[in-house]
Amino acid sequence: MRAETLKRLMPAWEWRWTDTDAPMLASHRLWQSAAYRLNSGPAVDAINRLVAESISGGNIDLAWVDKAVFLYPETVQRIRDSARRTVHFTPDTAFHANRSRHFEKTIGMFDMLVTTKSFEVEEYRRRVPADRLHLTTQGFDPALHFPRRTPRQRSRSVTFVGLAEPDRERCIVSLLEHDIRVRLGGRGWKGFLTRWGRHPKLDFIGANVVGSQYAEALSSSWVGLGFLSKRFPELHTTRTFEIPACGAVLATEATPETRSYFTESEAVFFDDCADLAGTIDRLFAEASDDGLIAIASGGTRRVKSDGRDYPSILRNILGRLHIERFQLAL
Q1: Bridge-based pairing state of the strands 268-270 and 249-253
Q2: CB atoms within 10 A of CB 322
Q3: Is 8 exposed, middle or buried (0-12, 13-18, 19+ CB in 10 A)?
Q4: 281 plus 161 within the same structural domain
Q5: Residue 71 belongs to domain spanning
Q6: Kindly report the CA angle at 212 between 211 and 214, in degrees rounded to 5?
Q7: What is the mean pLDDT of residues 276-289?
Q8: Hey, how many other C-beta atoms are within 10 angstroms of the C-beta on 155?
Q9: What local confidence, expressed as pLDDT, does residue 321 receive?
Q10: SS3 of 94, please?
Q11: Staple partner for 123: which of 95, 96, 159, 250, CB 3.0–4.6 Å?
Q12: In this predicted structure, what is the pLDDT of residue 325?
């Protein structure tokens, strides 16, 4: 999404893409495991060779690197030597999950480091000057995340797509026990489905619900669950903006960040599973959809007016880099 957005923002520029997933997926599972666990091995070697080949010739105005967890210091140095400006962007944590000794060694080589994790700002500041750090929010892609159903076509159900985690399982169970229909997708749910898969109110929509399928899933239910990970102190996530962008009611855990992005009339906040189930139960018990429509519409207007879309977010980053020759294509 970010790559396509950059291309639309800067239509006069020539772009070269390097898909580092390709050598990873072509590697044996053993080497994939070594890459993710140790940041080393043949798969990581192949990624670095591919990146080095892609920048041969130099003369690059802007090098944009998404998640440099597998890039060796010598590879990042070659990128820096070949480019006038270098940006590192990650939508994920860099010092909790996804931690990489390679990134730790190369963090100072980038002209700008963009993070969406406010709780990691101090970690960055211990390593780079504050003026090279840019904190932004997660975002949504307006070309993908938009309402695909009318209000009348939405079901009184809740949708969650994401990884299974114990607290998420507990909340799904609480919803089912309140006789609330749940549409569930994502990875890691095998054990949960063994126990709850036959529940009449549970629909498992698949392990790989991505792209337009993901947007369609959010557009089919009245409520989208904005669960936050408990593996690290996450305060908002991509779902925080993708759900209202798709016209659904965002049900999100109450944090200082989610509270700053929405009011009570623009999202449903909860502190625990029982609170979540009770609130949704009351909303679905109403005879009319008017209350759901009001919250969903308010959330959609808010993410648009506040510029939570990737074009607005990336335009701001480019502006900080003092790149003047860009415009959003009509």
Answers
A1: parallel
A2: 7
A3: middle
A4: yes
A5: 2-138+309-320
A6: 70
A7: 96
A8: 14
A9: 87
A10: coil
A11: 95
A12: 56
Instruction: Say how many domains are in the chain.
Output: 2
CA dist 204 → 30, 84, 149, 310 (Å): 30, 48, 20, 29
Let me know: does 20 contact 14? Beta carbons within 8 Å. Answer: no
Residues 134 and 167 reside in one and the same domain: no
pLDDT (mean) for 17-39? 93
- Is the pLDDT score of 328 beyond 80? no
Q: Please tell me the predicted confidence (pLDDT) of residue 324.
A: 58
User: Does 199 lie in the same domain as 90?
Assistant: no
Q: What does the pLDDT read at residue 326?
A: 53
Structure confidence at residue 59 (pLDDT): 87
Other C-beta atoms within 10 Å of 16: how many? 9
- Same domain for 164 and 90: no
CA atoms of 119 and 15, how far apart (whole Å): 33
Residue 144 in domain: no
The torsion angles phi and psi of 31, rounded to 5 degrees, stand at: -75, -30
The reply to whether 129 and 164 lie within a common domain is no
Same domain, 290 and 177: yes
**Which CATH number fits the domain that encloses residue 253?**
3.40.50.2000
**pTM of the entire predicted model:** 0.92
Q: Are residues 163 and 255 in the same domain?
A: yes
When the pLDDT of each residue in the chain is averaged and rounded to a whole number, the result is 94
Q: Per-residue pLDDT tens for 286-301?
A: 999 999 999 999 999 9
* Residue-level pLDDT at 57: 81
For residue 309 the two structure tokens come to 């879309």
My answer on whether 9 and 21 are in the same domain is yes
